[in-house]
Fold:
Amino acid sequence: MTKINITGLGIVSALGISAKHHFNQLISGMIGIGHYQRDGQYYYAGKVPFTNQQLSELGKVAFSVYTSRTALLGILAAKEALGGTVFDSRIPTAFINGTTVGGMDRSEHYFSEIAKGNQGDAALFQMHDLGANSAYIAEQVGDFEYVDTISTACSSSANAIMFGAQLIQSGEYNRVLVGGTDALCNFTIEGFKSLMVYDAHLCQPFDANRRGLNLGEGAAYLLLESDQGVKESGNRCLAKLSGWANRNDAFHSTGTSPDGIGAQQAMRAALETAALRPDQIDYINAHGTGTQNNDSSELAAMDAVFKESLPDFSSTKGATGHTLAASGAIEAVFAVQSLLENCAFGNFSLAEPMTASPSLLRKTVSKEVRHAMSNSFGFGGNSTSLIFSGN
Amino acid sequence: MAIHVISSCSIAKGSITVNGTPVFFHEDGDFSAFSKAAFKKLDIPYSKFYKMDKLCQLAFLGSEYLLKEAKLVFRDDEVAQVFFNGQSSLDSDSKHQKLIQEGAKVSPAVFVYTLPNIMMGEIAIRNKWYGENLLILKPDFDFEEWAMEANLLISGGKATYCLGGWIDVFQENYQLQLYLVEAAGIKMTI
Structure:
């Protein structure tokens, strides 16, 4: 059976653009979350520091008021992941995109015009649908035979990665671009605030006094290729995707069970796919949103799965903010970098860690990392765990 | 097709039909009146039902009416859910958007339902099912296409049973065509 080779990485978030830059930002403890102003208020959010006009220029696409920010972020990350890869009819390529915000920023622009008493331009809705964003990105970055969109809230892009791996393993495709993208918008910010889980201050995942999450925006993609695909493309294999699994927590629409049953099942099943024992995982990039509920149930789940061999773990959402559908892919890129650079990333903004375990890293540590796990959990109980392994 | 339909349930325009037999009808009234009456008839203590949005209430009612008739006992991971859906969570999305628009207090009870897959989560919670979930947006329903997805999950060993079908809600238009299927050729042990 073919391996799932990762031959390209691309990422954009509040920390900046490109995989290499993100690695530098993370090891130097940079926080991308800052003050974000809207309607005379400010709050903390991980905003990509470029306007849509600037993103269009960086992504080398024509600027249009009808193009969603979600798609513009996606184009930048997708182009980086593809690198110099040549689209060739001998290697038909699929594109699996995770998004949950889609073109909501453009739809909100329509509504704000209406509220001002202006006539709304209905064409602003043309990228509202999630699939329209995937289609636009696909059109701008390559020649894809198959394009699909996955929307499972905060686990969307982790599921896109899993789906891509299955397309390769089943022999359907030798090359799949996988990942996700989401922009900040009022719809999600207002929603998380109404759930009382939006931290008015800088978020502190895995801290005893954590108050909630800060939303962020961004995009990340990984280029996956089969052994045959690598032979044809000549791309260098950076790492392997070795394990994946998705389970339902079956507990609550927006909360996770106290013991993280879904998370436990997903982690165990991913280990089984990778044929690894728990003590072989060297680093976990946790979902770690900073909400009371997520972090306590995720820690309980990790404790249950790993017992006394709990590996080094951290959440990087304290640097990027919670980028919703993009977070699984953004953190997958971080997991691959931990393998490439042999380091485990530190957690951000820890004052009083919620666990006495030394496994919760305050700072980035250099160490040999052969297998790294990345967790993503979404509303509706959707729990996904991925495992990345070095060459 | 290698699957066998154990039970089916359809809901539309105030009526519920299980395995082809009408089991409930509520004349007049809007969705809310219909769903409350249909829920009361089930006579189950599950007050969470009243908090759900229309999409979830419709999925919940369908699954309860169908499972009541099917009288099967499942292990916690042997039922997969696969739904095809047309208009996603648009009904709740527009309510949430309207609250933001009006500068009103945004409701967590509305925001929760601005994702269509929450509907499968509600069924999973009610039945304590940890199995596979899949929701695909499609312009309309084709049973053969749906059966192919269900068959793939069952023949791939991911589930013994699959519950799902077509669900679509926007404003006062609602439709559910729900099926519980298993691999063909397995003898029922009832």
Remarks:
- Chain B touches chain A through 33 residues (CB under 8 Å).
- The mean pLDDT of chain B is 93.
- Residues 3-183 of chain B form a domain with the Peroxisomal Thiolase; Chain A, domain 1 fold (CATH 3.40.47.10).
- Residues 54-70 of chain B form the longest helix (17 residues).
